[in-house]
């Protein structure tokens, strides 16, 4: 008996590789040239033809949505890894934000100059991230390491401030000092 082909085949390895090359090139081009960077520039930077780019991302919005979704997914992964590593809430928050700063040049988020996301799938990941941060703040109140008024927007704006893309290598030391000062202040009664 002959096996029936599946309705959706996994993309070929070279197609997956080309898609990833487009994504990496698009992030760099957006940081370098802004959201209006020509799609042809992104394709050239990725070393693929424009047709290949459009085969993976039929519109600019599709490409920008993918970059935003990946960024929120990466943030959520960082938060989950930090939580799993243990420690006080402030230590977990510090590990999470340190990872965000480290990946700043790979993130495309509205708060760091990227587009707003309108997709349900990205909003769902963003909601999970916000829920995780809320739970971490509540844990900090319970363990006594967070004594100041703090909520998701506070953490988001701190992360966005520290994770501006395109900062030079000296920024890591500055961001680490600012983050350490901020985290130490969370344990001081307001």
From TrEMBL:
Q: Which organism is it from?
A: Angustibacter aerolatus
Q: Outline the extent of the HTH tetR-type domain.
A: 16-75
| Pfam families (UniProt xref) | TetR_C_43, TetR_N
Q: Identify the PANTHER family for this entry.
A: HTH-TYPE TRANSCRIPTIONAL REGULATOR BETI, HTH-TYPE TRANSCRIPTIONAL REGULATOR RUTR
* PROSITE patterns assigned to the protein according to its UniProt record, in alphabetical order: HTH_TETR_2
The residues that cross the membrane are none
Segments of the chain annotated as binding DNA = 38-57
Stated name of the protein? TetR family transcriptional regulator
Record's keyword annotation contains Zinc:
no
Matches recorded under SUPFAM superfamilies: Homeodomain-like, Tetracyclin repressor-like, C-terminal domain
Q: Which UniProt keywords apply?
A: DNA-binding, Transcription, Transcription regulation
């Amino acid at each position: 008996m002959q096996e029936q082909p599946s309705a959706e085949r996994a993309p070929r390895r070279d197609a997956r590789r080309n898609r990833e090359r487009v994504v990496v090139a698009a992030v760099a081009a957006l940081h370098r040239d802004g959201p209006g960077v020509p799609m042809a520039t992104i394709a050239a930077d990725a070393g693929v033809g424009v047709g290949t780019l459009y085969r993976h991302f039929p519109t600019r919005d599709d490409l920008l949505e993918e970059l935003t979704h990946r960024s929120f997914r990466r943030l959520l992964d960082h938060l989950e890894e930090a939580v799993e590593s243990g420690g006080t809430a402030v230590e977990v928050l510090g590990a999470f934000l340190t990872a965000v700063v480290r990946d700043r040049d790979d993130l495309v988020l509205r708060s760091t100059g990227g587009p707003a996301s309108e997709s349900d799938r990205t909003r769902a990941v963003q909601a999970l991230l916000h829920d995780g941060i809320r739970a971490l703040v509540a844990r900090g109140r319970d363990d006594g390491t967070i004594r100041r008024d703090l909520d998701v927007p506070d953490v988001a704006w701190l992360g966005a401030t520290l994770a501006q893309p395109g900062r030079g290598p000296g920024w890591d030391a500055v961001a680490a000092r600012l983050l350490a000062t901020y985290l130490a202040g969370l344990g001081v009664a307001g």
